[in-house]
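Question (not urgent): is this output format expected?
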Amino acid sequence: MLNIEKRQILTNLLEGLTKEQIIWLNGFVTAKSDGEISAPILAKKESNIKEITILYATETGNAKKIASNFSNKLKKLKIKVKLKAIQQYDPENLNKEKYLILITSTHGDGEFPENAKEFISFLDLNGPDLSNINYAIIGLGDSNYPLFCKAAIDLEDKLVSLGAKNWQKIANFDLDFENHIENYYQNLEKSLFEEKKNLTGKITQNIILNDIGSNKEIHHIEIKSDAKYQVGDAVAIKIADNAPRLYSIASSPNQNEGEIHLTVKNVAGGLCSSFLSELKSDDDLEFYIAPNNNFRLPDDKKDIIMVCGGTGIAPFRAFLQERDFSAADGKNWLFFGEQYARSDFLYQAELQDYLESGLLDNLDLAFSRDQEEKIYVQDRIKEKSDELKGWLEKGAYFYICGDKNKMAKDVEQILIEILGEEFLEKLEEEGRYLKDIY
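Got this back:
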């Protein structure tokens, strides 16, 4: 038996270890007791991420404290870390970064710390291409103020608008951040060592959904695969050495066993979209499943409102297929927008069948160029504001999928006009306002 002093030493040691290290220690002690090991060797798999840059913006020092702590821990994992106060970092170097952790507090009327303003100004004035960056943002704030962690939220908006991709979901901490930051770090560390298993599927169909006269080329692609996924997940496709491109899955695994469907817009100069658009039947495709636990269907009894433009229809096609399969009791309302009804009404036959069968309770369409005055999904939402508010007051979930800088931003502004900021914040707090935007 251990005496009190040795117990305290062991307790102090265990408090500083990660779950993975404790598991290793258990094995080490067992082996040691059998006389098999004479010295400890920590066998941790090497991370495939070799370098991370950490920037912190602070006025009180808390962000710096977290940044320094993270830096020390990452260095122990043999990861090269560049740690800088944000005002000491040259933003011209952003195009060289791959993994970026940004930690910022919020001050005044939802403002950035003073030392971050030059960095933010650079982003606003220069609009650099940040598509090479995978970011993780930590916000520090005080929930007693109405614009809680607004600086971190605004920073994410800026990064995403410039093409950056989130490596970790944004984490906003209150005054008690010290009680939660270690758990966040352990999840971050876990992600460094998680292997994304590449799967291989075979193309069975690749058709253009647009009709003659469209300005767009949107493909419906079907892949034969035994990959396990959930409605709301995405497929990640990596071309050469580029940060992977994610495409929302447009099918329900229950309605399409052994298949994955994608809705892909062929973008001029888009390496991945061009590659996918040119695939033919029987071609092989390597990919992995990227789970999206922040964009799931609620209970079958809950009502849902889905808003999208163009290829943003993909996850909602999957939602509707899943609700059809499960015979869900909840009502379903879809707002869909595109340019022309004749050439750009994606999945028209399916949606009209769902409307006739009663699976879709409401289908509101906005084809912006079918008339002189352009009409968008946010205009349709405004027209139906009373009914929409009624659904939400009764517990409906609200989903947006599509362009972050245009459609999603305009839709959110209309929601604020209809519901008020307090109501919208309540929806977010309750997990009933979900976004898959890019």
